[in-house]
């Protein structure tokens, strides 16, 4: 990954790489995390992960009304599944796949 550096004494390209690793659940699903963040999965955002025979869910925290897009890797596919959640007044929401559903917690 290359990112253009603006300003400073040496504007140009700064060469670095970012790797995101995700454990795969026994059912083949994996939590990839929050789409818009460099650190996609953190304890501050995700408090639990649950999986069952054909899916998984995560509990996420944030500010009421905040929109969070959570990415999952499905079994036998290279295309991520996105679930858009709006954090409820409790400060929590639950995102689930394969239903692509989000509910407040």
What can be said about this structure in brief?
This protein is mostly beta strands. It is built from no helices and 9 strands. The N and C termini lie far apart (36 Å).
Question: Could you explain the architecture of this structure?
Answer:
With 105 residues, the chain is mainly beta. It contains no helices and 9 strands. It has a 4-stranded antiparallel sheet with strand order 4-5-8-9, with no helix packed on it. A 3-stranded antiparallel sheet has the order 3-6-7, with no helix packed on it. Strand 1 and strand 2 (12-15) form a beta hairpin. It is globular, with a radius of gyration of 16 Å. The model has no long low-confidence stretch (mean pLDDT 88).
What key attributes describe this structure?
single chain, 105 residues, three-stranded antiparallel β-sheet, mainly beta
Strands, count: 9
Shape: globular
Terminal residue distance: 36 Å
Radius of gyration: 16 Å
Strand order of the largest sheet: 4-5-8-9
Topology of this structure?
Layout: E1 2-5, E2 12-15, E3 30-34, E4 46-52, E5 55-61, E6 67-73, E7 81-86, E8 92-97, E9 101-104
Antiparallel strand pairs: 1-2, 3-6, 4-5, 5-8, 6-7, 8-9
